[in-house]
Amino acid sequence: MIEERAKKIKMLVLDVDGVLTDGRIIYNDFGVELKNFNVKDGFGMLLLNRAGIKAAVITAKKSRLLAKRMKEMWISRLYQNAFDKLEAYQDILKRFGLKNENICYIGDDLLDLPLLKRVGLAVGVKDGAEEVKTAVHYITETKGGKGAVREVIELILKAQGKWEEVTRRYRK
Question: What is the value of pTM for the model shown?
Answer without folding.
Answer: 0.95
